[in-house]
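User: quick one, sequence for these tokens?
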């Protein structure tokens, strides 16, 4: 257990679909953290209610995202709004996350992920790119143990339909690695899934607030996936000098700070998704940009330039 002065932060996420990253409802996962006291957060929520004037018992990000409440959203994200300057949101492009995991499993090199993603997204027809991502997602999932070797066959059939592409050329000869990976999935006890972005995103949030070596206590919206095994995994991937002091799960309605993290994660996910889909709102991306983790898992160069204000290594992240 970490000792010394502890920084307490409140966290929440938006866009979680577990390991079902391609077949889910969202294309972006966002994880947010804020550091402020409960009284400040409560005052913020009270002002937000005064501005929105909805009878809802619990406000969510979709209240802010309604067009009629655009001024409230701009206030929330803007320099005169309630968010502390160090409020942070880590963004994950789910498609890139899948390609990154494929590069890790089949090539042993995550640096290969960004060029593969950009070639596939930029050169393939949308239907072929989607088919590749779906088969790749199934290949590297660990919660589909009953699928046996079928994901391997499906993945390489998809590659066979992409002759002459960088994806096919680079990955076609990796089948032995894929078969060995699926054999491990079948033979070994279930472990912490490597394809769920929650743990690496939370690790980056802790790393941001604990960058000066202060241990970080996390108050997080209740998540069934934040099991004891996953918390132990989280502690092993935290980049030094960041340290986890404690992790407490609460209902978001019980802590106004967690509600603010929920707002930030929800609006960031929608703004980032619009940018990824060529629907960028440049005013909102500009307001969000100071709060976006520069190590977000984001490889799309066009939307990256809108969302991330600082340059990082190619492919977007040093996230574990």
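Assistant:
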């Amino acid at each position: 257990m970490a000792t010394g002065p502890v920084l307490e932060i409140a966290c929440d996420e938006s866009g979680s679909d577990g390991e079902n990253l391609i077949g889910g409802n969202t294309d972006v996962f966002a994880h947010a953290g804020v550091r402020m006291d409960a009284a400040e957060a409560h005052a913020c929520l009270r002002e937000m209610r005064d501005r929105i004037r909805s009878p809802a018992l619990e406000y969510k990000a979709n209240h802010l995202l309604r067009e009629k409440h655009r001024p409230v959203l701009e206030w929330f994200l803007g320099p005169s709004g309630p968010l502390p300057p160090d409020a942070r949101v880590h963004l994950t492009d789910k498609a890139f996350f899948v390609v990154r995991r494929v590069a890790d499993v089949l090539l042993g090199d995550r640096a290969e992920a960004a060029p593969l993603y950009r070639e596939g997204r930029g050169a393939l027809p949308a239907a072929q790119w989607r088919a590749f991502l779906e088969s790749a997602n199934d290949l590297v999932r660990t919660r589909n143990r009953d699928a046996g070797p079928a994901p391997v066959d499906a993945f390489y059939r998809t590659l066979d339909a992409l002759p002459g592409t960088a994806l096919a050329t680079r990955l076609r000869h990796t089948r032995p690695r894929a078969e060995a990976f699926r054999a491990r999935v079948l033979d070994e006890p279930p472990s912490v899934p490597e394809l769920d972005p929650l743990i690496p995103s939370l690790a980056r949030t802790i790393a941001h607030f604990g960058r000066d070596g202060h241990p970080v206590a996390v108050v997080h919206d209740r998540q069934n996936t934040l099991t004891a095994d996953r918390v132990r995994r989280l502690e092993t991937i935290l980049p030094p000098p960041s340290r986890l002091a404690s992790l407490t799960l609460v209902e978001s309605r019980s802590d106004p700070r967690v509600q603010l993290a929920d707002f930030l994660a929800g609006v960031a996910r929608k703004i980032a998704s619009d940018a990824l889909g060529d629907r960028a709102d440049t005013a909102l991306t500009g307001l969000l940009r100071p709060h976006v983790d520069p190590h977000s898992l984001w490889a799309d160069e066009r939307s990256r330039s809108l969302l991330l204000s600082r340059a990082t290594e190619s492919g977007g992240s040093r996230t574990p």
